[in-house]
Every structure is written in C-alpha cells, then in structure tokens.
Task: structure prediction
Amino acid sequence: MNQAKINTSLFNRLRFVLVETSSPGNVGAAARAIKTMGFSELILVNPRFPDVLQRDEAVAFASGAQDILAAARIVDSVEQALEGCNFAAALSARLREFSPPLTAPRALAAQLVADASLNAAVIFGSERYGLPNEIVEKCNVLLNIPANPEYSSLNLAQAVQVLAYECRVAASEDLSPATGGEVGFQGNAASLADIDGMFAHLEQALVEIEFLDPASPKKLMPRLKRLFSRTQLETEEVNILRGIASQILNKRRRLDRS
Ligand SMILES: C[S@@+](CC[C@H](N)C(=O)[O-])C[C@H]1O[C@@H](n2cnc3c(N)ncnc32)[C@H](O)[C@@H]1O
Result:
C-alpha cells in the first residue's frame, strides 16, 4: 500500500470532462483511471449513448470504480461541464494554429497543485474526432502528452490515466498547506463563464466600431482569445474589459443619436 503523504486539495478541485465519447468501455476505463489516482469527478458531454453509465461494457471496464460511474454527470454542453471552473485545459494530440499556450501534463499538474484558488477541468475529445477548435479556444492551456511523433494519439482512457497520474505525483511532491495564500492570484480567478461573457461583449463593441467585420471576421476573436489565455484573468480584470466594451457601445449609441 502507498503510504506517501499527499496534498489532497487538488482531488476536490479537478474534474475530468469527456466530450462526445463513443465507447462505453472507454468511459468505464476512464472512471477507473481517475479513481486509482484519487480523483472522483467525471462529467460526460453528449456521449454517443445516453445510457452509457449503465451499459455493461462501461461497468465491466470500471471494475472497482463503479461508484465513480454512478456519480458521473451527463450534460449537454461544455459550458455546463465547466460551471464553477476558473481554469480549463484542453487535451489534444494535435497542435493547432490558434490555440491557448501549449503545456505538458507535468507542468500543468504542478501549477494546479501549487495554486489552490484554481477549480480546474481537464477536457478530453472524442475517440474519432478529438476536440473541436471552439472548445480548445475556450481553454486556458492546450495540453499535449509527449509521445512518439509518428503515432502520438493515445487511447482516450489512457490519456486520462496519464493526466490523473501526473496530478497525483505532483500532489505527492507538494506538501505545502493547500490554502492558496501567497501562491497564485492576487484576486479571484475569473470563471470561464465570465470570460465567455466578456468575449461576447468585446466582440459586440469591436463590431460596433467596425474593427471587426462580422461578414469577414478572419481570426480576430481566436487571436484575442489566445492573447488573453496567456494570462490568468481575474474577475476584476474581466469587469474592466467589460466596462471598456460598455463604454464603447454607449459612446457609439450617443454619437448615432446626435
Ligand atoms: C483517441 S484520441 C482522439 C484522436 C482523434 N482522432 C484526434 O485526431 O484528435 C482521444 C482523446 O485523447 C486525448 N489524447 C490522446 N492522445 C493525446 C496526446 N498525445 N496528448 C494529449 N491528449 C491526447 C485527447 O483529448 C483526444 O481528443
């Protein structure tokens, strides 16, 4: 039995999100992977089979982790899966032109353990298609598991296992009290829902001043998302950006009226 001391704070702050998973066996194996490493929160976004959690194959692959399966939640959208989160990492074997900063599981795990103010999600794509760009662009980081460049796509549940393992190892190595305090943000990390709202507001303002042409948006919003994803936005900062957007919209309306 492993008696190593461990900082358990991350176990309650990290959720595993599987998007549009098709194989019940992978869902069961993912439940087992997260339980063996001490985690418990599994969320499925639009799985191929709505009854996947009860399917024999899922139950068989979960083995002793049937409690994780039973407690797993099924939701309709990534936004629902991320409710209450202020940090999200997209896992992909594929690098993309417009993505948040690239990081590796070990570095991310250390960051999540060190900063107790982070309520995080790690998001995995479907077996066939991986993660769509719209989801990757919402995330703070893109996580790539280092692998053979000629064949780097792990089985979904194995990717979950690697991530959960790295987080456990990082938690075992960091035994500082998990209170946040001097490490991490000065203010509260903005929730992902607030950041989404801020981008929608900013987009509206940019359209209003004709900086963004909705008929030909090019890559302006993905580029801005990438820019902001390089910093961990705080609630106050999101409010400032929304204030700027409001001011632009109000000023524009006043000019239109005069
Ligand atoms: C079988 S893979 C999906 C492969 C898919 N055909 C694609 O091109 O993305 C299922 C999921 O496991 C995760 N995954 C697999 N290999 C990975 C790697 N090397 N780094 C990060 N995530 C990986 C990703 O979340 C991926 O969406």
